[in-house]
Amino acid sequence: MNIVGKHVVITGGTSGIGLALMRQLYDNNDVSVISRPSDGLEELKRAFERVNIYEADLADLGAVEKAADLLVKSEKKIDVLINNAAVQYTPHFLDDDFQYESIRREIDINFTSVCTLIYLLMPGLMQSNPAIILNINSGLGLVPKTDSAIYCATKGALNILSQSLGYQLESTNIKVKQVFLPLVDTAMTRGRGKNKLTADEVAAEIIRGISSSKSNIYIGKVKALRLINRLSPSLAQKIMKAG
């Protein structure tokens, strides 16, 4: 698919990778952003007058349903749905600062809202030929690390969802893709890791991946992780556990 003249829906388009994607797609496409009310969302409205804004905290499934309903009622076809938004909480279960209520929020934002939006936006996706559902995943969806157990679990679930949904939609106009990311230099990863790719670099690779025939796109260090995991799963687990 050549990403020009398309209607692209992005979740979490006010910062990080989502904002980089929005900027790179904006000039040549009709872009809609689903994001929680914030100063970043207000800045987005001012900077990009043509962007379509749908306010929803993705942890609030009622708000997600309302945003999806508004999108469907707009009667616009959806060429590309990019499920990008995610949160990651790093405390271990036994840490004093682990917050029980964060479990539900992390799962709802990273996984449940993805399932919800895919289902509710299916009418718009069915109008386009072809249409693409792109789920932004992580190397942690392949091999987990010690920190962020819930985040790793949601990314593993997203990997399986993408594969199974791809089978379900195989005979339709909709193709399911996912991108596996390394550590990217965003607010979520501040203070962690070195030699991180920038959000702009990753966004450019994601857009190239959308245009390719590949169902799975591996970026940066995830390429090596995938190879190690194929050759020696135990080694991959050891590396990620220590990291």
UniProtKB/TrEMBL annotation:
<dbReference type="Pfam" id="PF00106">
    <property type="entry name" value="adh_short"/>
</dbReference>
<dbReference type="InterPro" id="IPR036291">
    <property type="entry name" value="NAD(P)-bd_dom_sf"/>
</dbReference>
<comment type="similarity">
    <text>Belongs to the short-chain dehydrogenases/reductases (SDR) family.</text>
</comment>
<dbReference type="GO" id="GO:0016491">
    <property type="term" value="F:oxidoreductase activity"/>
</dbReference>
<protein>
    <submittedName>
        <fullName>Short-chain dehydrogenase</fullName>
    </submittedName>
</protein>
<dbReference type="InterPro" id="IPR020904">
    <property type="entry name" value="Sc_DH/Rdtase_CS"/>
</dbReference>
<dbReference type="GO" id="GO:0016020">
    <property type="term" value="C:membrane"/>
</dbReference>
<keyword id="KW-0560">Oxidoreductase</keyword>
<dbReference type="InterPro" id="IPR002347">
    <property type="entry name" value="SDR_fam"/>
</dbReference>
